[in-house]
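Q: Start with the shorter request: fold the first protein.
A: Done. Sequence, then structure:
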Amino acid sequence: MAEQKLAAAIKFDYPDDAVPQVVAAGQGALAEYIVEVAEAHGVAVYKDPPLARALGQLELGDRIPPALYRAVAEVLAFVYSLDQDKNRVDQLLQEV
């Protein structure tokens, strides 16, 4: 049997937020919807099923617990690198 799709979304507004918080989580159709909404709004999607499972155990609005800091930091670093790459491409396109 195929494993059910999981998804979670976090929000982190540095420096206003000290710790990221869970703003959406679900499985199955809800997980698919979370991913669709993220993609429709240009939000990066990072695949890490164990992290999605762990975040799904939290209540919406909960801050990320210290045990998940490293995993969430990897996600944030990934998103930051995507933003930097996009900024470089945008800058190059403006120079053409």
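Q: Next, the second protein, separately.
A: Sequence, then structure:
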Amino acid sequence: MTVLDAINIVDLVRPAQRAPAKNRILETVNVLFYEDGIRNVGVDRIISASSVTKATFYKHYRAKDNLIVEYITHRHAHERAAMEALIAAAPSPERALRDFIASVIAEIDSPGFRGCPFINAAAEFPQADHPVRKIVTAHREWHIDTLAELLRGMGHPVPGDAADELLLTKDGAFAGGYAGDSIAASAALHRIANRVLAESKSA
């Protein structure tokens, strides 16, 4: 059982089944935590931006830490669902991988881009045994496994190594796209991805 299996994952409950106030709180921190940093956003600001009372907030979340865990879990569930939909819509593993790279580049170019939310969260919680770090680790393991399975479907000779390379290249593109030249970061990601995929065809 992974860390994510052991946690009460918010996205296993459809948004319509959650209390409207709880939805608003989660939607609010999904923006604020990403834009301004988890530790920089206090409970009073969350309550005000969510248009809920303090009593309502603490009814759903005993402490900010509970909300932080739910936020990063929600991020994982959302990204996983998007990836599964992308794979299901693609006619081949190669098409799925190319669509994935295109989606990463589109995210880098999107308004309000602040880099990778998982790496950002990990940087704010340096303790390896913190629940947030465990969720981030589980997310990255899922990501590598998913990429490796697609590369295996393409016949790549070393799908695990290639998946590591793609994920690390995505990390670099996210960092470079936010802190530096987004066009150069996207171009570098595209070049490396093309090389990795070409290795499958030459195997």
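Q: Describe the second briefly.
A: The chain has two domains: 8-62, 65-200. The CA atoms of residues 36 and 114 lie 9 Å apart.
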